[in-house]
Amino acid sequence: DADVTQTPRNRITKTGKRIMLECSQTKGHDRMYWYRQDPGLGLRLIYYSFDVKDINKGEISDGYSVSRQAQAKFSLSLESAIPNQTALYFCATSEAPGTVNTGELFFGEGSRLTVL
Amino acid sequence: AQSVTQLGSHVSVSEGALVLLRCNYSSSVPPYLFWYVQYPNQGLQLLLKYTSAATLVKGINGFEAEFKKSETSFHLTKPSAHMSDAAEYFCAVNPNSGYSTLTFGKGTMLLVSP
User: Cβ separation of B101 and A45 shorter than 8 Å?
Assistant: First the structure.
């Protein structure tokens, strides 16, 4: 089984619908992230959480919200989806960087969202 | 704030040729540096990482990268390209700071022709 699991893997929805992407991890990491990938733009950080009680906005948080239900679960919601939110979404986890850990990210397989 | 610049959104090589993917970074503190690879329809996996232990870092599948502080570069190389190396490659920087997050470059698509 994958260490970082995302559901659904693919989703097609319509403008205005509410969508939730879910992420769960078995790596025991405190830190979890949601990234969005668009062709030619690389990965951009939407939200991140350093522990269950800590939620932070990334560079492109508008139109998104998150919930950290437990150490192992981090969900991304689109309250009212719009076509320019069509993208590939990745969840990732990490440990805190320091003298031993580098803050390396471990990624899920991605959730492809299409908003019509 | 940190940033990453990958020169060339697409790089084409012939099978057996040298692969060179360029990455320059900016960071206010000594960083950790990473190269990730994304094969078609897959997630990202770590290729190699620089942690200040050695400036020349060896990764999986014959790739290596050299950290050059004076040039703020972390270029990725492989002596001989294989068809299976065709993928998108991302450079990323993480300042060695407890509250930092990774910043990614925009990616370089490596195309390998027979």
Answer: yes
Cβ-defined contact of B94 to A108 (cutoff 8 Å): no
Q: Report whether pLDDT(A99) > 70.
A: no
pLDDT value of residue A71: 93
Q: How far apart are CA B106 and CA B5, in angstroms?
A: 7
Asked whether residue A66 carries a pLDDT value surpassing 70, the answer given is yes
Residue A52 touches partner B, C-beta closer than 8 Å: no
Please choose, from the candidates B40, B41, B11, the residue with its C-alpha nearest in 3D space to the C-alpha of residue B23.
B11
Q: What is the mean pLDDT of chain A?
A: 92
Q: What is the pLDDT of residue B36?
A: 97
> What are the CA-CA distances from residue B24 to residues A53, B17, B35 (Å)?
35, 23, 12
CB atoms within 10 A of CB A57: 13
3-state secondary structure A9-51: CEEEECCCCCEEEEEEECCCCCEEEEEEEECCCEEEEEEEEEE
* A28 in contact with B, Cβ within 8 Å: no
Query: A38 touching B, CB under 8 A?
Result: no
For A56, the 3-state DSSP assignment is strand
Closest CA of chain B from A18, distance in Å: 25
| pLDDT < 50 regions, chain B | none
